[in-house]
Amino acid sequence: MGLIYRLRLSDMDGITVSSKIRLNSKKNKNTPIFALTANNEESIKKKCFDAGLNYILQKPITKEKCNELFKIYSNNKKTNQ
Question: What are the angstrom distances between the C-alpha of 27 and each of 24, 31, 57, 65, 81?
Fold first, then answer.
């Protein structure tokens, strides 16, 4: 299982959410976290990866991008077993 969410959330930004998940949850340390964003700035990408995000999906999201994400995740899942 993995988490997919927008970087801009109403209560807390996605980078903060990722940091909290990684720091405060032993159970979810290895849970894949995917961000959905329209932002393509390198500084934001760096912050995302530093916070523990695994993948960044650029908007607009397409069926092909979703399929690519699921392919990456399922390949990683196989190698981690």
Answer: 9, 8, 24, 28, 16
pTM equals: 0.71
pLDDT digit string, tens, across residues 30-62: 888 888 888 889 998 999 999 999 888 888 889
Kindly report the CATH class assigned to 3-79.
alpha beta
Instruction: Give the H or E element holding residue 76.
Output: helix 63-79
What's the CA gap between 71 and 33, in Å, rounded?
A: 15
Residue 57 contacts residue 80 (beta carbons within 8 Å): no
